[in-house]
Design goal:
Radius of gyration of chain B: 13 Å
Strand content of chain B: over 45%
Distance between the termini of chain A: 41 Å
Number of strands of chain A: 11
Helix content of chain A: under 10%
Structural class of chain A: mainly beta
Shape of chain A: globular
Number of helices of chain A: 0
Largest interface: A-B, 24 and 30 residues
Number of helices of chain B: 0
Oligomer: heterodimer
Largest sheet of chain B: 7 strands, mixed
Radius of gyration of chain A: 13 Å
Helix content of chain B: under 10%
Order of helices and strands of chain A: EEEEEEEEEEE
Chain lengths: 111, 112
């Protein structure tokens, strides 16, 4: 059974800092890994999708990497802003098509 | 281009009642999945529909059922509601499940 862990569970940083969010998984036989952002009480917004043949994806200030052999993905946020405050979730698909989620990292960027 | 649309936004039901939640997928998507998210937790997979058939199911009781219509829209039905069914219900659509998922804003269900 695939298990997904995100560390840290919560993170508070001052505006402007670069930061890294971690996601680890137990079964390396994955198809896709997707990072999402969730604002309180809202739905999920897709940030980056990494397919199994890829090592990383970039969008603006965000960069996500995938290392299947070590069972890890990282989400790098450059020059953080208060508007980045949200919960960040990683999720992956394995043999089936369902997404298996981590429990998320709650990020707060302070002025 | 409309994204995933869910209705209603909020719902309050009494224990033992039945509820139906609705989802319209993003244009061009043919696969709809449903997830339950309890407070402070990651979403949990309920089931997925493709070509009007349930393709995969998570660890949820038979009280949870669904349907997909020819226009790819979907419904989630929950019978005999329990207090523990209170959660945010999320619908996600994709094209075959291979190119990432787009989520709706969710339906907040409260069972009292």
């Amino acid at each position: 059974k695939q298990e997904v862990t995100q560390i840290p569970a919560a993170l508070s940083v001052p505006e402007g800092e670069n930061l890294v969010l971690n996601c680890s998984f137990t079964d390396s036989a994955i198809y896709n890994l997707q990072w999402f952002r969730q604002d309180p009480g809202k739905g999920l917004t897709s940030l980056l999708l990494i397919q199994s043949s890829q090592r990383e994806q970039t969008s603006g200030r965000l960069n996500a990497s995938l290392d299947k052999s070590s069972g890890r993905s990282t989400l790098y946020i450059a020059a953080s802003q208060p508007g980045d405050s949200a919960t960040y979730l990683c999720a992956l698909t394995g043999g089936g098509n369902k997404l298996t989620f981590g429990t998320g990292t709650q990020l707060k960027v302070e002025l | 281009d409309a994204g995933v649309t869910q209705s209603p936004t909020h719902l309050i039901k009494t224990r033992g009642q039945q509820v139906t939640l609705r989802c319209s997928p993003k244009s061009g998507h043919d696969t709809v999945s449903w997830y339950q998210q309890a407070l402070g937790q990651g979403p949990q997979f309920i089931f997925q529909y493709y070509e009007e058939e349930e393709r995969q199911r998570g660890n949820f009781p038979d009280r949870f059922s669904g349907h997909q219509f020819p226009n790819y829209s979907s419904e989630l039905n929950v019978n005999a509601l329990l207090l523990g069914d209170s959660a945010l219900y999320l619908c996600a659509s994709s094209f075959g499940g291979n190119y990432g998922y787009t989520f709706g804003s969710g339906t907040r269900l409260t069972v009292v």
